[in-house]
Amino acid sequence: MGIRLSVLDTSPIVQGSTPREALRNTADLAELAEELGFHRYWVPEHHGMRGVASSAPAVLVGHLATLTSRLRVGSGGVLLPNHPPLVVAEQFGTLAALHPGRIDLGVGRAPGGAPHVVSTLRRTDRPYREQLEELQALLDPADTVAVPVQGGNVPELWLLGSSPGTAELAAELGVPFAFARHLSPDETCRADLVSVSVIAAEDDARAEWLAGPIRAKVRSRREGNRILLPSPEDAHPGPDDGRVLVGGPETITRRLRAVLDEMGTEELMITSPIYHHADRRRSYELIAAIADDLSSSAPSGTAEP
Predict the structure, then answer these.
(1) Domain limits of the chain?
(2) How is residue 12 annotated by DSSP?
(3) How confident is the model at residue 254, as a pLDDT?
(4) Contact of 112 with 141, CB cutoff 8 Å
(5) What is the pLDDT of residues 92-139, one digit of tens each?
(6) pLDDT tens for residues 140-189?
């Protein structure tokens, strides 16, 4: 089996746009992803973040699954301490009943927002492992009170994280692990899926120009000033911190091969922090076009960190 390519989409609200526009762009990108042959499309749970429209993954997953027919759609992820496991099982069991064989339930434990926002969610103090084990039991169609799950309407459960410790927990529970390399690029651990931040363009120069906004946003955040993603024309970029892989097709092929070799995975989930939606679409088109090259072994000595 060749390398699988998937999409992680936060529904970014960029400067000058609105949540409605961001969610429309997500719907459009999901349809494109299916057309291009991507395997999964995940949306996250964030709260009180001005630049992120994806706050209710179960709702958004249902919408995207209706718009597509083959693409696996899921959460990347539901933040389990914010929700009773029964509610999560019921929501995603319902989705699995409506869209059989296509729903992923990725779960994590991050807060998902600033403390003053997260405090309104009434997060539980229960141990995370205890919550996960309860959720696993509720997703057993043979013995569950989560009625939508009964009869075999079971989403594929994934554990999300950005550290080797979470990978170990996933292995202990027998759950596939998705590693958030776009958040922790310096960590290395074995994972079933690895998320990577990528900006691709026709050549390296244009890709570097498209990367200006995310570098400006990172620089501003480090200075204590949170901004929406600016346009490339208005951006005042900071230095390249290595979190985003940037380049034309040859450069991106080389750098993604290095990630595949380092992480030992067969699935890459791509997130692309690009201002203009047309440029973001084009980035995914270019990444899809190099899928066959990624499936071949990287030539010795050419891998790039």
Answers:
(1) 4-295
(2) B
(3) 96
(4) no
(5) 999 999 999 999 999 999 988 888 898 898 778 899 999 999 999 999
(6) 999 999 999 999 999 999 999 998 899 999 999 999 999 999 888 777 78
- Answer whether residue 282 shows pLDDT above 90: yes
Specify the amino acid at residue 59: V
| 196 contacts 271 by C-beta, under 8 angstroms | yes
Which tokens belong to 33?
A: 């992803």
Return the exposure string of 261-288: e unless at least 16 CB atoms fall within 10 Å of the residue's CB, then b: eebebebbbbbbbbbebebbbbbbebbb
- The two tokens of residue 83 are 């929700």
In DSSP terms, 75 is beta-bridged to 43, 105
Reduce the secondary structure of 135-179 to three states and give it as a string: HHHHCCCCCCCCHHHCCCCCCEEEEEECCHHHHHHHHHHCCCEEE
Distances (CA, A) of 286 to 4, 283, 290: 15, 5, 7
The DSSP 8-state label assigned to residue 131 in this structure reads H
Instruction: Give the span between the Cα atoms of 120 and 47, in whole angstroms.
Output: 10
Fold of 4-295: TIM Barrel (3.20.20)
CB atoms within 10 A of CB 40: 24
Question: Do 292 and 2 contact (CB within 8 A), yes or no?
Answer: yes
Type of residue numbered 5: L
